[in-house]
Predict the structure of MSP domain-containing protein.
Amino acid sequence: MTRLLTILFIMAGLAAPATAQDAAPAAEPQAGAAAEGAAPAATEEDDDDDDDDDGAAAAEEGVHEAGSMFDFGFSGIMARDNRTQLAPLTLASGKPVAGAEYKLKSGGFYRIDINADGSQELALSGGDFFRAVWINEIVINDIEIRPMGVHSLEFDDAGTATISFIAVVPGRYTLSIPGSQGETQQAVFNIQ
């Protein structure tokens, strides 16, 4: 019996703060309070708790501003003004894929054309590169593809594929022709 009473007292003690909050009496006006329509005088309690005022002002405005580190405009990072057109990649038998290494910035929006001349069936493979970027779309013959993931692109005939992407993960990545070992048979992307 005493154990049951002890448990009941403990449970009542734990529940008391919750019920006290629910049944809090309304604040009574203090003696000497200002007339209706006038702002109430500040109390010592209001002076001690000044960190809530900033949050209340922001909540009233309905805006949570993260700072003006980036000014992308209304369209955001995907606006054409923010996009950088990179030098095209070339898929042709015996020719280098890229003229030089690409230096990209993490968070930058880029577009690159991959041109195949049809001289040979060639592909560009680079799973690590495609995992390090967010691909907006791949455009082939005016058909827009918005993939969840890509490992490689293969060209059976002449054509152009345009990839628009945002560089995300810093590092050094390559797109290369599968089975080739020469340095000219790959494109190197340095994301900083």
User: Anything to note?
Assistant: The chain is about 20% helix and 30% strand.
